Amino acid sequence: MKKQLFLFLFALMPLCAEFHASISPLDAAVKKRMVGRSWHKGCPVPLNDLRYLQISHIDFHGRTKQGEMVVHKEVAAEVVHLFEELYEAGYPVRQMRLVSDFGGSDWQSIEADNTSAFNCRHATGSKKWSRHSYGKAIDLNPIENPYISRSGRIAHKASMKYRKRVRQKNMHPSNRAILLKDDAVVRLFKAYGWKWGGDWHGVKDYQHFSK
Description:
This protein has six helices and ten strands. The protein is an alpha+beta fold.
């Protein structure tokens, strides 16, 4: 009975609090957090072309939280619309923090199951800039939606149980966070013109959406 009540209340959470979001140029405090961590000289996008977003999301405990993200100014309004639709649909996001909080380490950000966007780095296994370096890529719940190499390797131990891409019948947030082909979340991003790493051949990057 308690479990059923929790699931019922969790389903109502998006209706209990309004979605809030803001878009602003990077102020001195945000720049200080980023420089030398997620951004450095030589990055393909100047700081002035990036925007700082504050976005409501539902965490894995069903609570409304205010997350933060940095994206390119060209996609800032679109990203807000995307996350507003995710919020209204009740899609859970464990946490949403700047990669700078993890020293600019993509590895540490993923270990924390952190949903993020801008990070000036090379694409995995490449010397080319990642779309994250342009602020035009988002990694969504990366533990539940892992990067799987051509050889089938998964680097993060917590992601091992998500190798098989199936959703269990239970409604636990970590289960609902799994992204599958033709899911409403995947269709939503594609409707806005974003490509999904789950469609890649060979390598699979289920967390990854890029514009």
